[in-house]
Write a structure and sequence with these properties.
6-stranded antiparallel beta sheet, 9-stranded mixed beta sheet, 31% helix, alpha+beta, 451 residues, globular
Length: 451
């Protein structure tokens, strides 16, 4: 069901640049301040391709997209970026420390994936996308004809056979061995043996792909495919524009890590925790972890309780400015079958984010879909300590603290053809932009398993 293929990656030339100075996180997690910092890090930083700055003087002929295309063309001419001679898969190992101080090692690989319609069942989404973001990404892709940032996707492989096959065949020395700007160790190799590549294609052929991060980029790839098919109606089914660059990670990889995606509410007129807890009482069992003069120690105790509730029932936490305790709210037995959850499909009722959205944000607090999409009202963040600090310092009024959404819930929701509330998942860390790029030449075809 999943048609993967090796590719000739565009990569930064280590003789021309220091890789750690030119890579970035994905465009959608970069703040304006970070954008400025990446601009200053190196004149060839990929920020000038993937998230080029706008100017007041932008026109149809000179804008963020055309400047990105000009930069890419110039860098390729200068061999700052070069294309590999042989097609391959690119195994990537990421060693990192999560926000709670735990160390992990995640394994995956960069590949091409045929961009198919969701209706065919080979690639499944789990989150809603927004048309404005897709329009921006499509305009960029039309200008640069290159996948700049990989989609992060998952596949089932209980024995991690695909990754083990790649690890056994990867070339040495490694193409990349560095500590990135976020202090994570990144090691990337290549597997370009045609027989091994063909075996990986065969092993992946019966897999269903679940998008973890990059729904907008995948749907942009679908839209770009349609656009190019109109331009090149005689192109074969394996024309290069039918594929998109993806980072694939096994659902069984020990380093696959998710974080809670917390809801930080900056202002909410008239809110106080005592009134809220009274309104929540028909739906939730509530307990509290008092600060007792040490909010950080209380936070750690609370996070343990929230984690312990992980599989019992939908649960989340509440911390409010001016309060002296964390509150743990757990859905009461039987409430999932009652209003306002009665009409929610079964797999969705088990999601903490779905219960929070429908019972708390909509029903109790009266925040409709439009309000929840207003960034100045609700921020979605994964750094628990920072979220709590902002609330306790008065920078925000309150926050709902979330458990990570388990991978098996993502799978069950996607397989049921359902869509989670926005920002239900946060796979950590994001896959770097700039390790590999995929040039899309409409005259080229993709041969699975061959160079």
């Amino acid at each position: 069901m999943a048609l993967v293929a090796p590719f000739k990656a565009l990569r930064y030339n280590a003789e021309k640049v220091s890789l750690e100075k030119v890579v970035t996180p994905p465009y959608d997690v970069i703040s304006p301040e970070q954008q400025d910092a990446y601009y200053q890090a190196d004149p060839h930083n990929i920020i000038r391709l993937d998230l080029n700055k706008q100017r007041d003087s932008d026109t149809a002929e000179d804008n963020t997209y055309t400047r990105a295309a000009a930069n890419l063309k110039q860098w390729m001419a200068q061999e700052v970026i070069k294309r590999d001679a042989a097609a391959g898969f690119y195994p990537l190992t990421t060693r990192f420390t999560d926000p709670e101080g735990e160390e992990h090692v995640r394994h995956g690989f960069l590949t091409l994936l045929k961009a198919v319609d969701y209706s065919l069942g080979g690639v499944l989404p789990h989150e809603k996308t927004f048309s404005g973001t897709k329009e921006d990404r499509l305009n960029l892709l039309k200008a640069v004809s290159t996948n700049l940032s990989p989609i992060f996707a998952l596949y089932p492989d209980d024995d991690n056979l695909v990754q083990r096959t790649l690890e056994a065949a990867k070339r040495t020395p490694e193409l990349v061995d560095m500590t990135d700007p976020l202090d994570m160790v990144q090691r990337m190799s290549v597997v370009d043996d045609p027989e091994v590549c063909a075996e990986v294609v065969r092993l992946m052929a019966d897999k269903v792909i679940f998008i973890a991060d990059g729904h907008h980029r995948y749907e942009t790839a679908q839209n770009y495919r349609a656009y190019m098919r109109r331009r090149y109606p005689q192109a074969p089914d394996n024309a290069s524009f039918n594929y998109v660059m993806v980072y694939l990670c096994s659902m069984s990889d020990p380093g696959l890590t998710t974080l809670g995606c917390h809801r930080l509410i900056h202002h909410l007129h008239g809110f106080n925790s005592r009134d809220f807890l009274a309104l929540a009482e028909p739906y939730f069992d509530a307990s509290e972890v008092p600060f007792d003069g040490d909010p950080e120690a209380a936070r750690r105790r609370f996070i343990k309780q929230l984690t312990d509730n992980w599989r019992k029932a939908p649960s989340f936490g509440l911390v409010t400015s001016g309060d002296q305790a964390f509150h743990l709210l757990t859905l009461k037995p039987g409430v999932a079958e009652q209003e306002p959850l009665a009409n929610i499909p079964g797999p969705m009722r088990a999601l903490d984010a779905e219960v929070l959205t429908h019972v708390v944000l909509e029903h109790i607090l009266g925040l409709d879909n439009h309000a929840r999409d207003r960034e100045h009202l609700i921020a979605y963040r994964s750094d628990t300590a920072g979220v709590v600090s902002d609330v306790l310092s008065g920078k925000a009024r309150l926050a709902f603290l979330m458990n990570p959404t388990p991978v098996d819930q993502v799978q069950s929701v996607a397989e049921a053809g359902l869509i989670m509330p926005r920002k239900s998942t946060y796979f950590y860390p994001k896959v770097l932009t700039g390790l590999t790029m995929n040039l899309i030449d409409p005259a080229e075809t993709i041969e699975a398993g061959r160079g």
